[in-house]
Amino acid sequence: MALKLFNTRSRALEEIQPREPGRIGMYCCGPTVHNFAHIGNFRTFVSADLLRRYLQFKGLAVTHVMNITDVEDKIIKAVQSTGRKLRDYTGEYEAAFLQDFDALGCARPTHLPHATDYIPQIVSLIEKLVARGVAYRANDGSVYFSIEKYRGGGCRYGQLVNLNFEEMRVGERVSSDEYAKESVADFALWKARVPEDGEVFWPSPWGEGRPGWHIECSAMSMDLLGPSFDLHLGGEDLIFPHHEDEIAQSEGAGVQPPGQPFVKYWVHCAHLLVEGKKMAKSLGNFFTFRDLVAKGYTGREIRCLMIQAHYREQFNFTFEGLNAARANLARIDEFTTKLTELAQSAKGTPNDKILTQFANALDSDLNISGAWGIIFDWIRDTNRQIADNKLDSSQAASALATWEKLDSVLGLGAKPAAEAPLELLALLEERQSARKAKNFARSDAIRDELKAKGWQIEDTPKGPRLKKL
Ligand code: AMP
Ligand code: ZN
Questions:
Q1: Which residues contact 421 (CB under 8 A, 6 or more apart)?
Q2: Does the beta carbon of 32 lie inside 6 Å of ligand 1?
Q3: Which residue stretches of 153-255 are H helix?
Q4: Deepest in the core among 20, 22, 24, 459, taking most CB within 10 A?
Q5: Ligand found nearest the CA of 46
Q6: Per-residue pLDDT at 456
Q7: Which regions of 46-185 does DSSP assign to beta strands (E)?
Q8: Per-residue pLDDT at 54
Q9: What is the pLDDT of residues 413-450, one digit of tens each?
């Protein structure tokens, strides 16, 4: 069966047919690195990771791009209020983000481009838009996208959402990165330098300034995946204006081959709510990934919870749900431990029947609840065979191979011997940076400190890890 996903543009389930047979180009809007990412952000990234893993399970070669938004309105505000340098500030939150991302079992994207490394591509894209008459320079040196000119050229603004153009006043502008559907207006591609930007500016043909948020994603995605690519993901809040503007900027530049859209399939992940409400600091229900870790939950447990609900359903986070996910994961770990003991060194081939049922469920718009139903029925049946002493070593090895294949999609990974606390993982990162900078005195001191705390650094092909002494 072929994978079908809900395409936001057609508002229908569509069979995924890669533009190039066997290959998928996929872009997911990444984090804005101005703070620690919250569990809602991670729901979107874990969903993107699940899709990427499933595409690979189906034998497709996936080029997965996730950008790092390291310059936009919120970041500039934060940089100004702290008096720190842009890269210094964003670098810290980016490192924290990637640590959490790894702890959640998300596979690193093929490319992790930074917006600030793409200024030449951004400028060149804006130049194309200006040359084609769909962008204009305002008196202050900012450049705006003209919705009227774009529509006048026969292009459609409003591919992902219905917009009321009657209420729109031609030429009205919006300079902030975030705005609502009601205030649809010409949006900023390049923002002229203002005193509040401090040291954050670059030269451009229109004067000093910085890019708007939306153009960053158009420039990075098309540079790395080509002007027309397969899949674009993000949280549902990004549908308007961010993704609508991405389409306008990318298609407005006229760089796609004739008849091909900027993006073939738009996939959006519904929001995560906490105890039924939108997450807000004022409600006291706002959790970063780190908040949950501090309460004693592991990345695997949190992932296990996040991959329980369908990506298009609003997901209601509760501690009751997280505890249930913890229990499910413990059941899985117990199951794989028993299988490993029984299999000894036997080798087995996966159970095709289970894998086919699992794939049939996921082919239907990533129906993860259906997939879990199949997994837990199979675990129950296999456990029964184990209890009746009816599972020999080769059958156990086959069950283990089946689990490994299923887990290549679920991404829960093996139960680690013991998980090091986050502050020690941060020390390990610092040691890596010290080594890179040839600061061996510092790197040795960190090694000794970790040892004193009972952890040993172990070098693995995937990089250094902490092992309990
Ligand atoms: P940001 O770092 O704000 O740019 O957001 C990163 C990603 O998280 C985007 O794809 C957002 O759409 C997504 N996102 C933000 N809030 C939530 C939420 N409560 N639930 C799910 N995804 C979210
Ligand atoms: Zn984006």
A1: none
A2: yes
A3: 213-225, 244-252
A4: 24
A5: 1
A6: 87
A7: 61-66, 135-137, 143-145, 173-174
A8: 98
A9: 998 876 677 888 889 989 988 998 999 999 999 999 99
Q: For a pocket test of ligand 1, which of 68, 237, 242, 273 has the largest count of ligand atoms closer than 8 A to its C-beta?
A: 237
Residue with CA nearest ligand 1 atom 12: 235
What is the residue with the minimal CA distance to atom 3 of ligand 1? Answer: 32
250, 278 in Cβ contact below 8 A?
Answer: no
User: Tokens at residue 444, please?
Assistant: 């040795």
Q: Whose CA is nearest to atom 19 of ligand 1?
A: 40
Q: Is 234 in the pocket of ligand 1 (CB under 6 A)?
A: yes
Tell me the whole-structure pTM to 2 decimals: 0.89
Task: Give me ligand 1 centre to Cα 221, in Å.
Answer: 18
What is the per-residue pLDDT across 168-197, written as a single tens digit (0 to 9) for each? 777 889 999 998 887 789 999 999 999 999
Ligand 1 atom nearest the C-alpha of 279 is 19
Give me the percent of the chain exceeding a pLDDT of 70: 99
Say which amino acid occupies 41.
N
Closest CA to 397 of 344, 354, 361, 460: 344
Residues in the chain: 469
pLDDT of 461 reads 65
Average of per-residue pLDDT values in the chain: 95
Please give the pLDDT value at position 365. 98
| 180: number of Cβ within 10 Å | 9
State the ligand closest to the CA atom of 33: 1
How many helical (H) and strand (E) elements, i.e. helices and strands, does the chain have? 15, 15
Return the closest-CA partner of residue 114 out of 45, 67, 63.
Answer: 67
